[in-house]
Each structure stands twice: as C-alpha cells, then as structure tokens.
Amino acid sequence: MNSWKKEGIVYEIYVQSFNDSNNDGIGDIRGIIQKLDYLKGLGVNILWLTPIFESPLVDNGYDIADYRKINPQYGTMDDVDEMIEKAHEKGLKIVMDLVVNHTSDKHEWFEKSKQSRDNEYSDYYIWRDPKEDGSAPTNHGSAFGGSAWEYCPERKQYYLHLFAKEQPDLNWDNEQMRKAIYDTMRFWTEKGIDGFRMDSISFISKPKEFSDAPVVENKEYGAYYYGISNGRNIHKYLHEMYEQVLSKYDLITIGETPHTDVEEGEKYVDPSREELDMVFQFDHMHVDYGEYGRYSDVSFKLSDLRHDLDQWQKCLSWNSNYLGNHDQPRIVSRFGDDRKYREKSAEMLTMLIMFQRGTPFIYQGDEIGMTNVDFKSINEMRDLEAYNTYERFMKLGISKERALTMVNRKTRDNGRTPMQWNSKQNAGFSNAEPWIEVNSNYKEINVEKDLENKDSIYRFYQKAINLRKSNEILIDGAYALIAADDSDIIAFVRESGNQKILVICSFADKKIKFNNPFKGKGGKLLLSNYETAKPELNDVIYLQPYEGRAYIVG
Ligand code: TEU
Ligand code: CA
C-alpha cells in the first residue's frame, strides 16, 4: 500500500449535516468548501463524503438514481469540481461513497428492468418467481424491517432489496452491469477523486439459489445477509474491479463489510490478492446488541470490545480503525461518558482510534465530543430504520417507554444531527430550520468554543493526529495486546526495530492502578489527556478516570 494511504487520517463528512452554505437547512458542497481550512487545521488529510448523487433520499442518498449527477440540494457538478480542486490545493484527498450493492428504484436501470423479463436491463437486478402460493421466494427480512422481497406486478416476480424496498439489489453476475459500474468509477476517477468507500460491498455477490434463513427468537424474518454476505463470487468481482479500474490509478479503497469474520476480512485486504486496501469490520459494533438485535438497552462489556478489536488487529494485514460513523450512535455516549467525563473520555477514545494499527477514521463532530440526542418522541427522528424498528417493537407488545429508550440509544439519527459550529442560531449550521433538529447541547459543545480553548477535545485530537502522522512506529509498527484480562483497560504495544510505544486507555470512571509490563525499563510520556501524568514511566501507573496515555519505552 502506498505511504499516503498508511499515513492518511480520514474524516467522514455526512454532507447534509455538515455545513449549509445557502441557508435551505441542508448541508451542501459549498458548505464543505467553506470549511476546508477548518479540516486542514485539524490535521486530517483524507475526506470521505457520504453520497451526493441524484437520489430521492429514501435512505439519505444511499439510494442513488444517477451515479453521474449531483443531487441539486447539495449543489452542482461545478461545485464538486471546485471542491476537488481546492481540497487538492490544500493537500486534502477526496473519497466518494460508491453504493453499488443496490440503486434507487428511480434509477433508469430499474425502471427499465421492472418493465419486462426480456429487455436489455431485465437481468440487472435480482428477480425471482413467487412461491406456488404467490408468497415471497424466501423468508429473508430486509435490514430496515419487513420482507427483503417486493412484488412487481409488471413482471409477476419479486425483486430483492436487502435495505429499503426503494433500494433494489443489483445483479453482479450480469457482466454488462458490472462494466457500467466500472465506467462510473472511471468517470469519477478521471474527475480527480482519490478513492472509494464501498457501501455494503460484502453483499454484492448473491447466491444462484436462495434458501430460507433460520428464524431466531423475536424475529419475524430470517437474517437479511443469510447466504448472501461474502457470496460465491465476491472476491472474483473485486479482483476484476481491481484489474479493470483500481490498478490503473492511485486510489484508496475501503470496503464496508458487515457480517464478515477475520478470515474472510483478510481476503479483501491481503495485498497479493489485489482487491481492496482495507475494510470496515463490524464485530465491535455488535458488542451492545440485545434480545432484539441492534436496537437494545444493553451496555457493552469492555472485555468484548477489547477482544473484537484485538482479533482484527492481530489477523489483518491492515485495518480501518473506527468506533462510529453516520450509521452509529455517538462514540462518547456509547463507549465513553457523555456527562461528567465527556471531554476526558472523548480524548481517550481518539487515542484508541489513532494509535492502533491501521488507518484512523474520524466521524464529523467527534473531534468536539458531540453526543447522542435525547429524542423526546419518535417523530423527532428522521431515519426510516428508527421508524420501522419502533413499529416492530409496538407489534411485539413492548412498552412505548422501553421501545423509545432502545431506539433512542441506537438510532442512526444520533450521529446525523447538524455539526455544532458555534452557539448562535442552529449552532451556526444554517440560518434556516435544519432538516433534522440541532442537538440542544450546542451552546456548550461547539467548534468555536473548542478552538478558543487550548485544552479542548479538538486541540487534543490535533495532538494525537500529529503524533500519528509523524511517528513511524504508530503508522506501521507491529501491534500486540497487553493486560488482556484487565477489567478497565485496553492497552497495547506498538513496536518497530528496538523501539516501543505503550498505549493505555482507561474506561473506568474512577482512579485505577496499572502495572507497567516493562518494569525497570523506563520511558518517556508521549501523550496523556491529563496534565497530572508524569513525564517518566514508573513501574506502577495510576490513571485518572478515562485517562489515555502513551509512552515511548526503553
Ligand atoms: O450500511 C450498511 C449496513 O449494513 C449497516 O451499517 C446498516 O446501516 C445497519 O445494518 C443498519 O442498522 C450502509 C450505509 O452506511 C448505510 O447508511 C445505508 O443505509 C446502507 O448501507 C444501505 O445503503
Ligand atoms: Ca444548503
């Protein structure tokens, strides 16, 4: 992998919630252009934008109707060209979201495909005959709720949609379709973008014959990914994509691979196989699943988080290190403490992301410790998944109160509220009413405040980012977990040549003791989120609540 990819720090921009330049309540491309200096100042050097293409926005743009057109609510193609140029002038790379597991049902391909069984596009999607009784071909549920099959009267067949019914799944076994996708990728690459984040890529290769999935307790349908995740031709198609497109340019590629284990994960990123540079794994996103799956009132166990992260650190040639994104709750609320120790825990968490081995990913707003929202009712939420889940909970007879608690904790809307720039109207995001309400804590938590304070979370992120960028051991050094059984700590060592860096992250809300495994060797403090941390490394270390420390050992 090229050095810029290994040294890169990625910042994810959720475009509609980042910055609104024309005051219509929706973030846009020119809004990003206005903030490029802010991003450069933070120290990140790769920007990943969520989809900005033509879309009816059933799933906030992950339902694309035209891969080569910009959704007018975000701006124009000229704006995009200008953004790419200005970003490059500032040394920032641009990564686009490539959503090719499915399109929107308003995409021209689907509109044609659904018309008949024998036109040029008939085979571009996954069509199957009904069962004899007219019901859906299998019991697969969609990720967002309901069946994964939708009946189409024109063809008298069902089509598959792993996500919303307005997101029909593409048929990757169709060569002409694959070529059309590769053409689109070339189109964007010729425009100068620097890489792709590939949405739901582990789902693109479907089985020839679908079969029913086992149905577990509290579920009406079988799992949406059953027999689908990491399907039979997945690696063949990604290698083909590599040969036809990726190998011809200097691009960074990040595959989103839900329901993938480490062995399968390594296949995507093993450089000799020529597929992708890195993947987003999901094991650690499952640590707080409950009896109804993702939406739960269960808290994570540190031992599970540590185990899952460690597995991927140990087994993959290269990782992408993330704790949150636009599909997840806020990291400080989920893995830290968003009240008393908000600042300290947000800082400790970034040390974990920055100093493990792999490319670090920051989600917008995490650099100022933005928190989950206390939605007072389901009507304040915007995500279709939240609505569908709430409805499912009502059907299951769960109390309204508990249903709201579970959806509140996990709704994707937690991470989607507008970026909090300052304490003025709508947090400085827009003069108009935003598409989703601003978190009510914006007067305390905002960029302006953090920029004025030398001890802020933002300033700490800058320090951690600079260390990550300038330190060969942190970039490419080997990784090894230590203190694997500690009840409060994730600690590990990075090593290169005869140099070591010891990283200790405390998840305790009290003061705790830690025995230095490198007794008597001495060491020098590289970073801590507490001023009380001593510059030398002692044999016994006392950590403050949510303290993170890094030492050079020896
Ligand atoms: O997500 C794919 C995915 O499987 C999950 O992260 C998903 O959001 C989760 O299971 C929901 O609980 C990607 C995008 O990141 C997401 O925003 C899209 O909604 C989805 O694909 C469909 O394109
Ligand atoms: Ca706008």
UniProtKB/TrEMBL annotation:
All copies of domain Glycosyl hydrolase family 13 catalytic, residue ranges: 12-416
Key words of the record: Glycosidase, Hydrolase
A single GO molecular function term of this UniProt record: alpha-amylase activity
One Gene Ontology term from the biological process aspect of the record: oligosaccharide catabolic process
Family: Belongs to the glycosyl hydrolase 13 family.
Record-linked NCBIfam families: PRK10933.1
Name listed for the protein in its UniProt record: Oligo-1,6-glucosidase
Species in which this protein is naturally found: Ligilactobacillus ruminis SPM0211
